[in-house]
Structure formats: C-alpha cells, structure tokens
Write a structure and sequence with these properties.
Elements: E1 5-15, E2 21-32, E3 37-41, H1 48-56, E4 63-68, E5 71-72, H2 78-88, E6 89-92, H3 104-113, H4 120-129, H5 145-157, E7 163-167, H6 175-191, E8 195-200, H7 203-206, E9 211-214, H8 215-218, H9 220-225
Parallel strand pairs: 3-8, 3-9, 6-7, 7-8
Antiparallel strand pairs: 1-2, 1-4, 4-5
Helix pairs in contact: 3-4, 3-5, 5-6
Amino acid sequence: MTPLLEIRQLKKSFVTPDGGRHTVVAVDYFAMPEQQQLALSGESGSGKTTFLNLIAGILKPDSGTITLEGSAMSALPEAQRDRLRATKIGYIFQTFNLLQGYTCLENVLLGMSFGPGVDRPFALGLLQRMGLEQKLNHYPRQLSTGQQQRVAVARALANRPRLVLADEPTGNLDHRNATEAIGLIREACRENNAALLLVSHDREVLQRFESVQDLAELNRAARAAEGAV
C-alpha cells in the first residue's frame, strides 16, 4: 500500500554565523500510512520544527523528496506547494498563530478561504465540537490559552486535511489543559480521518501515543555530519 506521506534522502542545512553550514535535518527514509497517529520525540533545537516545516512545504529542502498522497511536494514551485498545503495539510502551531483582529469563527473561515472554499456550517460544527459555540464572536485576546488552542485545532481541520502536523501543541498549556488538548486533537483527527504527526519533547505527551519515533534516530546522518558519535 502506498504511504500517505513518504520521505527519502531529505536534507536541510542553514548557514552559521561563521559562514559554515549546520545540518539540521538528514532523514534517509520516513513514511506514514493513512490515518496513523505518530509522535516524534526530540529535545529543543533537534530540528523538529524544521522537519515539520519541510513536510508542510513552508521550507524547501536542500535535497531529497517529500511525497504526500502521490504528489512530490518538494519538487513543486512555491505557489503549488502553498496550494497543496492548504488542501491536504492542517498545521497546529505551538504559538497558535491566530489572527488577533479576527473572531474565532473568522479565523476558521479565513483558513478555509485558502483551501477548497468556505464551508460555514462545517466551521460552526468544528467550533461546536471544540466546545466553543458560546465563543464564536470572541477575539483571541478574550479567550483563555486552552480556548485559543481549541480554535487552532478547529482551523487546522477546517479544510478536511489528509495530514495534521502539530508542533509542540501543549507547550503553552498547563498540565490539565495539555492532557485535554492531546485527547481532543487525537479524537478530532480520528473523526475526520486525518493522519496526525505530532512533535514534542514532553514525556507525558509522548506516553499518550502508541507509536513514537525518536528524531535523533531518524536524524543520525545529521549527527554524523556534525561530528557527533
């Protein structure tokens, strides 16, 4: 069976202040089947966000291929990568990235406008599912941190993505809200038949997943490039 996401020989490096190059991602092979829920572990600075941004097409790799549902994202021009991301990928950012001048509902509807199109009933249903039916016209600043996270989850699912990426989604939440958020994200992805790739350094978060991979293991080539053992 063809994987939903397949990565081969992926490399990404950045120029250091002294003019050298620091290899952040060097993954020989990585794949996810449809509807899998996988947690990727790694400490701060290990390249987790860079890896997700490469998958999302926000960053372009130095080399290698990223194939999502049969489309070679890494080979596409920027405009086509943006289109593929808008229609196939949902992204939950650690800092939520909500637009402060827009209400909860407007944040979700605006996300839809970059994908297949605005579906107001579906957006309302998502926000209701997140327990925000009384907060539709509230602005992010009027919400608790946990409520902002729920809006971010609803926005990530708004275009019915095939893959949801979550970058340290509990990093700004207390323990109770973090536990609740992970359960909510996982359940919402199952309900919408979306695969989930979540990255975290939090052991309690990682323990909630049946499938966990260590980015350091995937990234052994990067470590070797830096002279690590």
